[in-house]
Amino acid sequence: MTNLCRCACCDGALEPAQQLRFLVETDNLDNPSYLDRIRALPSVNGRPVPVCKACQTRIETHPVVLKSRPKAAPLSLTTGLLGALGALSVGWLLGNLFTSRG
Ligand SMILES: [Zn+2]
Fold first, then answer.
1. Where is average pLDDT lowest: 54-58, 69-73, 84-88?
2. Cα 51 to ligand 1 centre (Å)
């Protein structure tokens, strides 16, 4: 019950209407045919997600927003970059070694 008044996306206050929707949809999880007719909120794994009106509009416009976290993607890019930098510095070290000898 702790998250009831908070939006799951932006952590902002939930409008009373959105709270009511969340309560009613949660209440009818065992009644899928009825839930289908009243469902207004986005859902994850079949459970309604409490979101404010602004976030719901955004989710409906860009349905992927709940799945993709902005910080998840650049990991492989960073690793690749570090690898490239490592190779560059090794090459630079070897280059220095050979030039100082020659
Ligand atoms: Zn929100």
1. 69-73
2. 5
Average pLDDT over residues 12-32: 94
User: Closest Cα to residue 40, out of 62, 60, 15?
Assistant: 60
Q: Determine the 3-state secondary structure of 8 from DSSP.
A: coil
Separation of 17 CA from ligand 1 center, angstroms? 13
State the average pLDDT for the chain. 81
Ligand 1 centroid, distance to 12 Cα (angstroms) = 5
d(CA 89, CA 86): 5
Domain layout of the chain by residue ranges: 1-68, 71-102
Distance CA 96, CA 58 (A): 54
Residue 69 vs residues 58, 82, 83: alpha-carbon distances, Å: 15, 22, 24
Tens digits of per-residue pLDDT, 37-65?
999 999 888 899 999 999 999 988 886 65
**d(CA 6, ligand 1 centre) in Å:** 8
